[in-house]
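Team,

Forwarding the record for the chain on the shared tracking sheet. I've put the sequence and predicted structure together so nobody has to dig through attachments.
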Amino acid sequence: MSEVAEKSSMTIDGKVFDLNELGASLKDLKKGALLTTEYLKMEVGEVKRVVYVDSAEINSRKNDGSKEVAVKLLDENGTLRINADKALVSTLLTLKKLTPVEISCTGEKTSPQGTYKVFEVNALN
């Protein structure tokens, strides 16, 4: 039996929750916003309008156990997306959360570390 199932209450941030009551309330709740994220991949010439939501630390795409910073973006369909392209992340991290922007993928460049995308980011007013 799980630790949660063995308890009848749980305290979070000083507030006590009755777990039986909480579990019973699930059937009456309506489905809300989609919380899972999809990776935002952009090809050269593509333009996307999104809202910069926040940043997050994710597992590196190198699969070596390291972490990298990614940005969370809300697209026009209300889907939460994530992107870890360093050039894009470094620009978006300078913005306030919930800033609407237009992102254009303007090209690709090659460096000794590999190929990377070039982005143009414009604030939307």
